[in-house]
Write a structure and sequence with these properties.
With about 290 residues, this protein is of the alpha+beta class. The protein contains two helices and twelve strands; from the N terminus they run ααββββββββββββ. The strands form two sheets. A six-stranded antiparallel barrel has the order 1-2-5-4-3-12. It has a six-stranded antiparallel beta barrel with strand order 6-7-8-11-10-9. The chain starts with 14 loop residues before the first helix and ends in a 20-residue tail after the last strand.
Length: about 290
């Protein structure tokens, strides 16, 4: 049974006819546009009209992409910043190590020059640690009786006398510094030739005791070993006068000196071996740079 639409609805061409028509129209437009670019302005107008719609449709995609790029860039920036900080720390440590090595190299060259000037046999040593007793001024070096060290041997550095070996162990030795309160060393004032005894004090310096208040001693006077004790060879730099206090009431002046040598600034020292320490006097070493 065939169905016919009501006559008051206009039917128009059939579907097959419309398909053929639009197919032929499309082919004609394609051919004409390919050969004569007849649809160029149509495409441009359509693209202009549809551009806002395209932007609205693509906005969520672009937003998600930008967020992903932001987080990726932030993570990369943090990683690079961490790497730069680590590199900066490494460079700082390398620079500090290089500066320390350069300083030690300069000190070792000074010790080598001093060794060549001194006629007494010497032995190089390195500071291991300071004594744990806060009331004494002692250090321990890495040389001992196994290499010939013995008690009483003087210890010096490139600047001057440090102290003397008080106890020698097989692999190490204890050195009592000049600034120890129980240490004393015979000295001579270079400018006048006057002899005196320098004692260590609790402040980490030296004092010339029992010097008359009218003694010819001025600030800046250089002190060297006199050699009268038979322990320290004569002519080794010891200290320089830092202050002189004279009081008419007291018979003796209070003379405070600053030691020139010091393990608080250095790690390498020379030990004057006792075999020829008293028989072969030392050549007077040159004063450290900047000291009289």
């Amino acid at each position: 049974m065939e169905y016919y639409p009501p006559p008051f609805f206009k039917q128009g061409p059939s579907a097959l006819v419309r398909l053929l028509f639009f197919a032929l129209l499309a082919i004609a437009l394609l051919v004409s546009d390919a050969r004569w670019a007849t649809l160029k302005w149509v495409r441009q107008a359509t693209a202009t009209v549809l551009y806002p719609v395209q932007r609205v449709v693509l906005a969520p995609v672009e937003l998600l992409g930008n967020l992903g790029d932001y987080f990726t860039t932030a993570a990369n920036a943090r990683s690079e910043a961490d790497g730069l900080r680590r590199a900066n720390v490494g460079l700082g440590q390398s620079a500090a190590t290089a500066a320390q090595l350069a300083s030690e190299n300069a000190r070792l060259r000074e010790l080598l020059e001093l060794h060549q000037k001194i006629a007494t046999p010497t032995l190089a040593a390195e500071l291991l640690y300071e004594a744990r007793d806060p009331f004494v001024r002692k250090v321990v070096i890495d040389r001992g009786s196994s290499v010939g060290l013995a008690g009483g041997e003087p210890v010096i550095d490139a600047a001057g006398v440090i102290g003397q070996v008080t106890r020698a162990f097989p692999l190490s030795a204890e050195v009592t510094l000049l600034t120890d309160k129980d240490q004393a060393i015979p000295v001579q004032i270079v400018r006048t030739g006057a002899r005196a005894i320098a004692y260590g004090n609790a402040a980490g310096g030296l004092e010339l005791r029992f010097m008359a208040s009218h003694a010819d001693v001025v600030v800046g006077d250089a002190l060297v070993t006199s050699g009268l004790d038979g322990v320290y060879p004569p002519g080794l730099a010891v200290a320089k006068v830092a202050s002189v206090e004279r009081n008419s009431v007291d018979s003796f002046a209070r003379i405070v000196c600053l030691p020139l040598g010091g393990v608080d600034r250095l790690r390498h020292v020379l030990v004057l071996l006792a075999a020829n320490a008293s028989a072969a006097p030392a050549v007077v070493p040159a004063s450290p740079k900047g000291n009289p």
